[in-house]
Amino acid sequence: MTDLSGRVFVITGGNGGIGLGMAEGIAAAGGSVAIWGRNPKKNRQALDRINEFGVPAIALECDVSDESAVADAMAGSVDRLGRLDGCFANAGRSGVLKPFVDLTLEDWRAVMAVNLDGVFLTLREAARLLIEQGEGGSLVAVSSTSAIHGAAGNEAYGTAKTALNGLVRALAVGLARYRIRVNSLLPGWTRTELARGGYENEKFRTVTTRRTPVRRWAEPGEFREVGAFLADPEISFHTGQEVCVDGGYTVF
Questions:
Q1: Which of 43, 97, 180, 211 has its CA 20 to 30 A from that of 80?
Q2: Measured between alpha carbons, how far is 42 from 217 in angstroms, rounded to an integer?
Q3: Which is the catalytic residue, given 65, 138, 143, 144?
């Protein structure tokens, strides 16, 4: 059994969906949780759920595309919870669904600001703290199966998620000397607010379900265990990997 007692983890975008699922998994294993999100109401609701596990937990408002906001949130998390043992850069936004030839530079940059720049800023601040503490830790970037299959019509999103995997590999090599593990999580089709449009489109849901060997979409709560696994300091030899949790979608 994973035991995260006395450990502290930051989960960006942890107020819903996959992020909240992972936060619950960490809390169930005894870990303390700092949830970051932009929506105060969702933050409070998520915190209420985490509090049911009886672990120290906080929720902070943070826009991960804002460099100063990320630095302030990281400092505030450590100030209130005492330390940092890992960080899940999960916050993201949907892509701009339009033909590639109609995609504007503004569209492109809006997606990159959150899905790529936000992860860079978050992991950089976390890495600085973990190096300063000198006790190792775990960093996780939440990518997507869009980094593997062609995301036609959603090029900015797919490109950002693909770039995250390259960042993870580089950090895994560069931070290993500090006993910091760095991995990426690639979720498959999951019933989240971000993917609501796809799920509610019967034709799209049918096509993606048929292509998924387990013949269904995932529920956010199914990411509890993988969250605790990626956070576990005892798994010290696992780094630089793409952990794909997609019901077999990318191998079918």
A1: 180
A2: 23
A3: 144
